[in-house]
Amino acid sequence: MRNHSCCNKQKVKRGLWSPEEDEKLINYITAYGHGCWSSLPKLAGLQRCGKSCRLRWLNYLKPDLKRGSFSPQEAALIIELQGILGNKWAQIAKQLPGRTDNEVKNFWNSSIKKKLISHNVHAITTSPDMHYNGNSEEGFFSLNANPNWTLSSQQDQLYLPTPTPMLHGFDHGDLKLDQTNYGANLVQFPTPPPMAAPSNSSFYDPLWSLGYQPHEKFDPNQELQNFSTGGATQHYIGNKLIGPSITAPHYDENPLSSMIPKPCENISGNCCGMPYLCASQDLDPLSRLPYFPASFDYPHDPYVPNNHMEYMDMPSCHHRT
DNA sequence: AATAAGGACAACCGCTCTCTA
DNA sequence: TTAGAGAGCGGTTGTCCTTAT
Q1: For the HTH myb-type domain, which residue ranges apply (predicted)?
Q2: Is the CB of A47 under 7 A from strand B?
Q3: A102, A124, A146: which is the final residue of a domain?
Q4: Which residue among A86, A112, A177, A230 is least crowded, i.e. fewest CB within 10 A of its CB?
Q5: pLDDT tens digits, A100-122
Q6: What pTM, to 2 d.p., does this model score?
Q7: What confidence tens digit (pLDDT) does each residue in A245-304 have?
Q8: Nearest nucleotide (C1') to alpha carbon of A4
Q9: Count of domains observed in chain A
Q10: How far apart are the first and last CA of chain A?
Q11: Domain boundary among A7, A36, A61
Q12: A229 and A208 in contact (C-beta within 8 Å)?
């Protein structure tokens, strides 16, 4: 096996790091900074290659890293960003303070992807609304057949045809769009219809919020209305959201990695005093995405009260036909 | 209680990009 | 202009732990 150029002449240790090695690395970087990684191991008294030291520091030892499981908000943000950026883990991790690209990637591969695969393979493979030119590296995709919304995977920018006023701004967690140079509001909530309290089950899909077009007016008198979105059409009966069609922007040709979650898990809790049912709230962040304690405003966006969250009562996903 | 299977996550590999001489 | 070194990134593998049988 070939060694890295930085450790060609050294006999390097491999595998898991011992506490003693960690301590040496921490002590050295704390005192002197990492400087040139290739020369660090010798200076720090470590039998490792510089690359290994860098990885260990960045992914595990750095003091500002957040350890522990992902919160529902983090999970939702990862899902959203993966849908937009694809497997750009470093860029996704930048929107999650204290999380590393490796951590996000592992979380995606071990938790989210499996869930999406098991839930969505049919919905995605039969979706008529996915428009993608087949090249994940250079491609553009259009969002749900809306030719005016395109995302360049090279420039990582979403282009909207016209500026859309942020009536109900929503930066979704730590995502600050103006910092990431998207040049557009990726996520917007419309002026919401009067929200009916969920009856006995609710669903939430963080991707519902992607690409929402706020221009369409809601008419509470009309019995069935569709709000087209970037990733889904949201169906209303009266003022109750009954569910999106599951179509989402993707530019990864791997069908397994381009899944989006479908809102097929019953979720319960107490949101702004509105009780709702959950079949699996104790499972993991993904199944608990909409769950917040009572009287708990959505923690990342002071502009979006919880009662703007969207609910549906249908126990299955809806496809545009 | 023993063993197999699966999940989670740390670490490695190889490629690409950037910088500099 | 170009080659080499360092750094960064994404995909993959290996290892340990938990759960199921």
Answers
A1: 9-61, 62-116
A2: no
A3: A124
A4: A177
A5: 888 888 888 887 776 666 555 44
A6: 0.51
A7: 223 333 333 333 333 333 323 333 333 333 322 333 333 444 444 333 322 233 333 333
A8: B13
A9: 2
A10: 53
A11: A61
A12: yes
